[in-house]
Every structure is written in structure tokens, then in C-alpha cells.
Amino acid sequence: MEIEKIHKTAVVHPEAKLGQNVTIGPYTVIGANVTVGDNCRVGNNCVLEGQTTIGKNCQIFTGAIVGSAPQDKKYSESDDVELIVGDNNIIREYVTMNSGTIDGGRKTIIGNNNLFMVNTHVAHDCIVGNNCVLANVGTLAGHVTTEDNAIVGGLSAVHQFVRLGRLSIIGGCSKVVQDIPPFSMCDGHPAKVFKLNTVGLERAKIPIEAVRSLKLAFKILFHSGLTKTHAIEQILRDVPPCPELDHLIFFAKTTKRGLCS
């Protein structure tokens, strides 16, 4: 670690582990159990605390608080819990991320290549995949699972234990209280499914045959009037199979909070 890359007003605990070429801005505080990977840039007035691991090539902007204690009444300072952040994440101004809880599996886990815009919040025991976006003031409550390439619109709030499916988009100011199906576009208060995310599927280079299968499956699942069980039976019977359809069916079968209607 090149000492000149740490601003003289920063407070870095001697037991903190810093990789190569890490830059730390003025008045930032880094705790004893924090690990920061190579080529990370930490801005001014940030706090990195708790048992927190930050991967390589991450950017953390002004005022972010990463690894703070979970907002859970059962939490104790002696709990062995942690926050794990992957590589190439952008954590913008005043983002907050909490560590896990004993009851929730002990870990909050964030993948790679995600963008967390200003004032977003990731609560305890969340799992965020890769290439996700949380727009300004988007909030994930505890135990939320976000699959790869999901987008949460600004000022949207996601209820505890909800799952956000792969390549789904949630419109701004939405209230999300049920699982968001993969490949869907949702919006509202509470959020509802509007249509298939065809633009996202095209950008992800999903084969056109798979897109056709998903369109038919969405029509059956959300617009046929059938119960979820009967809709899945019809999809399995009538819709040409593909990996994306398999994922949609598995997601629908395993929901615990129910799918957005």
C-alpha cells in the first residue's frame, strides 16, 4: 500500500487489510476487521466497519457507510456476522449496507459489477447477484434476494424476504411486497406485472425462440385467469422448453410470498 494514497485525516485501523493501489479520502474511517481489495477508491467521509470484505476495483463515494450493524433488535455486538462485497461495484454517495444476522445466515452478500446509486440501502442478510442496479433511494429490506441483472427503480421499497428475479425491472416509487418474476417489468403500489422485459432480454442476447416461449408463458401465467398451479401445468404442456422458461417455472414454484399479479 502506497502511504501517500491515504489522506492524512483518514483513520485506518492498523489491523485493517488494504490491497495494492487503494486510495482513501479525507476523514474516512476504516475499522479493524475490514478488508479492502486492490485498486479500490474510497471517497471522503466514508465509514467501513464491522467484519467487512470489499473486493477489487470498487468505488465508494462520499458518505457511504458499508458494513454497519444490522438494524435488528436481536443483534448483539458479539455476533459473528459479516458483509461480503464482490468486485467492480460502484457504491455512490450515502449508500448504507448492513452486515448479516445470526438468524439470517450471518452474511449479507453482494456480487460483482453492481451499481448502487445515491442513498440506496441494503439491509441485513440480503443477497444481491451480479450486474444489478439500485436507483436513487431504492431500499432492500432484510433477507431480500436479488438475482442477476435486476433493476430497482428510484424510491422503490422491497419488503422483507422478497425475491427479485433475473432481468426484472421495477418501476420507480413502487411498493414491492411479493416476488418479482424473472424477465418481467413491474410497477405500482403495490407492484404488478405489466409485461415481459423484451428490451432486457434482447440486450442479454437471449435467443428469439426463448423470448417467444417466455411471451407465451407470461400470457398463460398472468392473463389466462388460471391458478398458478394450473398455469404452470399448461405451460409445461404447451410452451416450447428453454433454460429461461425452466428458470421462470422454478421461480414460480418456489415462491413463498407469492408472485406479483
What can you see in these coordinates?
With 261 residues, this protein is of the alpha/beta class. The chain has 2 domains: 3-146, Hexapeptide repeat proteins (UDP N-Acetylglucosamine Acyltransferase, domain 1); 202-253, Udp N-acetylglucosamine O-acyltransferase, C-terminal domain (Udp N-acetylglucosamine O-acyltransferase, Domain 2), CATH 1.20.1180. The protein has 4 helices and 27 strands. Strand 26 (184-188) and strand 27 form a beta hairpin. The longest helix has 16 residues, at 208-223. The chain starts with 10 loop residues before the first strand and ends in an 8-residue tail after the last helix. The model has no long low-confidence stretch (mean pLDDT 97).
Strand content: 25-35%
Category by helix and strand content: alpha/beta
What is the CATH topology descriptor of the largest domain? Answer: UDP N-Acetylglucosamine Acyltransferase, domain 1
Major β-sheet strand ordering: 3-6-9-12-15-18-21-24-26-27
Number of strands: 27
CATH class bucket of the largest domain: Mainly Beta
Number of helices: 4
State the end-to-end distance.
52 Å
* Oligomer category: single chain
Q: Could you give a quick summary of the protein structure above?
A:
With 261 residues, this protein is α/β, with parallel strands linked by helices. The protein has helices at 198-203, 208-223, 228-238, 243-253; strands at residues 11-12, 17-18, 23-24, 29-30, 34-36, 41-42, 47-48, 52-54, 59-60, 65-68, 82-85, 90-91, 96-98, 107-110, 115-116, 121-122, 127-128, 133-134, 139-140, 145-146, 151-152, 157-158, 163-164, 169-170, 175-176, 184-188, 191-196.
